[in-house]
Amino acid sequence: MLKSMLSTAANKADLFDGMRAASASALMLLVGCVLQAPDFSWAAIGAFWTSLATARDTPRSRLASMLSFSVLSTLAGGISTWAASLGTASGALAVLCFVTLAGLTRIWGSKPYQVAILAATACVVMVDHPLSANGGSSVYLFLYLVGCLFATALSMAVWRLRPAAPVRHATSLRQAAGDTLRQSLHTLREHASLSSDGVHFALRLGIATTTAYLLVHMLQLPYGYWATMAVLLILQPSMSSTWPRSIERAVGTAIGTLIAVVVSGLAQTPLAIALAVFPLIALTMALRPVGYSVFVAFLTPSFVLVTDFAMPAIDYSYVWARLENNLLGSAIAIAATLTLWPLTDKLRK
User: Fold this and answer.
1) Closest listed residue to residue 77, CA positions, set 112, 38, 125
2) Principal place where this protein is found (predicted)?
3) N or C terminus: which one in the chain shows less Cβ crowding within 10 Å?
4) Span 131-185, pLDDT tens digits
5) Helix (H, G, I), strand (E, B) or coil at 158
C-alpha cells in the first residue's frame, strides 16, 4: 500500500514547478545574505507567491498572470499597510474590501480567482506591518515587488513552459470547437445563478477574514496574520468542501510544524536558512498536485524559515504560533460556512 501511495505521489509530482519556485525564492535569500539585508525575506515571499499565481496554458497567459499578481498584490499590500497605520478599524476595512473583491472573481473561474486570492493573501499579511514614520514599510514593499518581478523574469527566461501537445486532426479540432461552443452556452445559462452565489461567497469570505483580523488584534495574538490567511485559503463555497480542507490544513500544519522544529534547530544562520529553503519550497510546489495537506506540510517549514531569516530566533515561537493560528482560522472558516449563506455550493471549484 505504501509503495502504491509513493508511486501515485511520484506520478502527480511536478518537479519543474518545484525547481522554478525554489530557485526564485532561494536566490532572493542568497542576495540578502550577500548584502546582509534580512528584509530580502519579503523578496523571497514575493517570488514564491508569484510562482503560485502562474497560469500554465500559454506563455502569454503565464506572463499576464504573474505580472497581474505582482501589480495587484503590491498595490493591495501598500494600501493595506497605509490603512493599518491609521488604526485597526481602517486595517479591517481594507481587509474587508480587498478580500471581498477577490472572492467575487470566483464567478469567472479558477484562473482569475487564483491570482486574486493570492493578492488578497498579500494584503492580509502586509496589513499587520503598518506604515512606519521611518519608511521601513515602503522598503519591504519595494523588495517584495522586486521578488515578484524577479520570479516573473526568471520564469519567462529560464523555466519555460513545456512544449505544447501535438496538433490534433482537423476532425478532432472541429469536435473540440463544437464542445467549446456548447460549454460556453451552458456557462451563459448558469451565469445568473453563479453571480448570486458568487456575491454570497465573496461576502462570506470578506466577513470571515475580517472577523479573524479583528479577533487576533483584540486578543493580541502574535503572528495573527496566519489566522487570517488560514480563513482566506480554507473557506470554500460549501461546508462539504470547507470541512475537509480545514482538516487537511490542520494535519498538514501539524506535520509541517514538526519538520520546522527539526530544520530550525539545524539552520541557525541566514546562509543555512537560505540553503534549507530551496529543497523545502521545491517540495512544496512539486507535491502541490498530490494533495492539500502535503502542500501545507512543506509550506509551513518553508515560511517559518523565511520568517527566521528576517528575525532569527533560537526558540520555536514562530512554529507554534503558526499552528495555533491555523487552528483558529480553521474554526472561523467552518463557523462562517455554517452561518453565512450556508447553501451556497454552486460555484466552480
Assistant:
1) 125
2) membrane
3) N
4) 665 545 578 889 999 999 999 999 888 766 554 444 444 444 455 445 544 554 4
5) coil
